[in-house]
Amino acid sequence: VLDQRFGSSAVLGGLCAIAVTLNEHREIVQLAPMQSLGFGERDGKISDRVRAITDAMSSGKFGAAASAQVIQDMWEKWVFLASLAASTCSMRAAVGHILAAPGGKDFILGILDECSAVAAAEGHSPTGPFFERARGMLTAEGSQLTASMFRDIKAGARVEADHIIGDLIARGEAAKVPVLKLRIVYTHLKTYENQRG
User: Fold this and answer.
1) Which DSSP category does 126 fall into?
2) Residues 49-59: what's their mean pLDDT?
3) Within 10 Å of residue 114's Cβ, how many Cβ atoms?
4) 47-86 burial by CB neighbour count: b if 16+ within 10 A, else e?
């Protein structure tokens, strides 16, 4: 959409990571001292405008960094986010509680495998360090980690079912990648949306 509106040469890639939620007063609450902002040219070049953005963001103290592989970074974030959201939303629990249940680890890793397979079919297979880090976070016993989408469900708020899970399913089906677990999760999320009205 942005490419069509502004032209592809005007659009950078970017991603951010932050653990936040809204409290009962609708104030933003940061859940962990972690925040980062990545950005870059989608062709991998470090351009003058990327350097200028890096300079402007350097004093922000929120982990801003230029990337020469921003599309890969975006795909890897999507794989992790979708895996975490699919797992915690469908089981309505934190990672540690899912892992403690029979079949919980297999379920989470099955979701991670499906998301990774879709990324690979799109030419962005998750890399070794990323995949090991993601796998470690998703299999940490006792972890209280949840996705923001799960916290939205608990609050009765809107969710990003179509954006995070539905789009992965569409891409997977187009590439003939099996996404059976993701389809179940998507049905679960759309059922929630239907109940919410």
Assistant:
1) P
2) 93
3) 25
4) eeebeebeeebeeeeeebebbebbbbbbbbbbbbbbbbbb
| Residue in the block written with tokens 């989608």 | 42
Are the CB atoms for 39 and 71 separated by under 8 Å?
Answer: no
Task: Calculate what percentage of the chain has a pLDDT beyond 70.
Answer: 100
- Residue 33: is it exposed, middle or buried by C-beta count within 10 angstroms (0-12/13-18/19+)? exposed
What domains, with CATH codes, occur in the chain?
Answer: 2-66 (3.40.50.720), 71-196 (1.10.1040.10)
Task: Return d(Cα 38, Cα 49) in angstroms, integer.
Answer: 14
- Amino acid 1: pLDDT: 92
Contact status, residue 41 vs residue 51, Cβ threshold 8 Å: no
Q: How far does Cα 190 stand from its chain's mean position?
A: 18
Name the maximum alpha-carbon separation found in the chain.
53
- Please give the model's pTM, rounded to 2 decimal places: 0.91
